[in-house]
Write a structure and sequence with these properties.
By secondary structure, this protein is of the alpha+beta class. The chain contains seven helices and seven strands, in the order βαααββααβαβαββ.
């Protein structure tokens, strides 16, 4: 088995890797080739362009034999705006208290190439990414039909907060330190 290399990317480096990351997203999303794949890719690139410009954007990638096999990224956000309004009605009072410090990290994407699933790629990416965000409340948002995303978050012992409009699930990192 080839050695896996992990690295953190700056905002500039992430933007430079946007096409490779979009390819990985399209592959991991299960989008069919053709028109469906191009629509999925275009939607991803719009979200990525938004996310990469956010405060404290942070991204880590994994390569095996020179190929991008995993990517995880997110950004720090405050308790305001659109995303907070959607969450605020599903958060417990204890979590609301935790977020009062303003240190909330929104985990935007977790991607692992199908050939690498079942290995420790996602776990290693998560560990590296969150070393900078240990004091943060870390929240992940996934679509309800994202069974793979749900399985990954459950394997990390994250807690499902609930579902909110527009039909997404919110998940919270456990308060204990990373292993």
């Amino acid at each position: 088995m080839a050695e896996m290399f992990l690295r953190r990317l700056s905002r500039w480096q992430a933007e430079g890797q946007r096409e490779a990351v979009a390819d990985l997203y399209t592959e991991t999303s299960g989008a069919e080739t053709g028109g469906g794949a191009s629509s999925v890719r275009a939607d991803f690139l719009r979200r990525f362009e938004h996310d990469v410009q956010q405060t404290d954007f942070d991204m880590v990638v994994a390569h095996v034999a020179g190929n991008l096999v995993g990517c995880l990224y997110g950004y720090r956000t405050d308790r305001g705006g659109e995303w907070w309004e959607a969450f605020r009605h599903v958060l417990s009072p204890a979590v609301v208290e935790q977020t009062s410090s303003g240190r909330v990290f929104l985990l935007s994407e977790v991607m692992v190439a199908p050939a690498e699933r079942g290995s420790d790629v996602a776990y290693r990416l998560r560990t590296l990414l969150l070393t900078r965000h240990t004091p943060d409340v870390v929240v992940a948002v996934i679509r309800p039909d994202d069974d793979q995303g749900r399985e990954v978050l459950q394997s990390w012992d994250w807690t499902k907060l609930g579902e909110f409009a527009p039909r997404q699930e919110g998940w919270l990192r456990p308060p204990s330190p990373l292993p």
